[in-house]
User: Fold this.
Amino acid sequence: MEPYSLIESKETYRGKIITVNMDTIMLPNGERTVREIVRRGGAAAVLPVDANGNIIFVRQYRHPARAFTLELPAGMLDEGEEPEACARRELEEETGMVAGEIRPFFKMYPTIGLCDETLHLFLASDLRQGTQHTDPDEFVEVERYSPEEAAAMIFDGRIMDGKTIAGVLAYLYIGRK
Amino acid sequence: MEPYSLIESKETYRGKIITVNMDTIMLPNGERTVREIVRRGGAAAVLPVDANGNIIFVRQYRHPARAFTLELPAGMLDEGEEPEACARRELEEETGMVAGEIRPFFKMYPTIGLCDETLHLFLASDLRQGTQHTDPDEFVEVERYSPEEAAAMIFDGRIMDGKTIAGVLAYLYIGRK
Assistant:
């Protein structure tokens, strides 16, 4: 048997937005180990840049952080939904903006040791006004900051969301190359 | 009652490394909603820079990604452990290096919509050789790359880990300011 082969997968929890599995895998030394893994599916986020070069963020209450946090628009893929379609949908739902141009930026595992979630980041530009329409239990404010202002907020702790930190710094990096 | 007050918290799963709660909270419109939240505790990661300006990474098998991934050294805080002590411990355990200098870099929530995990990133330098001693079920290889090589690996998909993407790009940003 190959190292890291999956020997057995047992679902130990089925919740509203996640399931948890206990997976038994084979180690290189021939022993077995059990890994607890959260299954959640895919997600998309979008870094929208307006005509003045500012990034459009959303601020919303996040219960896990017990705080109102500044983030890039994002959400989970609907069943069968392509990441780009999800990014476009979340952008319009959360900010009311429609992207004339959208392109893949990079992909990441937000919590690679625990969760199978993959997050697809996109860059959006050539924005025009559409219609904001959040879910009934979503209360979202839109805020705009320059990339440099956003970077300052990463290092002073005002931006704490991983995908937003990665996206803003990636945008600054490609702009300076 | 204040908006977003916690009305009720019910533990629905207790696993090996996580617990899951269903929390009922009050929305601004007076309605109640249930949020599923994964509780995991804190973590620390470290960006170690060697005398040649290269970043020291670890490569290991990550079951959620079904891949051998390149990452900054990191791990969960032990009970009562300070983030800096955890960063120093994980650095030596996983790479065998001891940091002469270590300082806080930034903090992030890797998965802010789902999980209460906070990750504390540190910058380490003035490195000297100690002793690598991984857990019995950890098989870790050490690799070194320049920050620019690492950035290229973010955009071509060879680096997929969120904390590593954020850390590398943050290091490039402060180096160019």
Notes: Chain A has a mean pLDDT of 95. The CA atoms of residues 41 and 86 of chain A lie 13 Å apart. The longest strand of chain A covers residues 97-108.
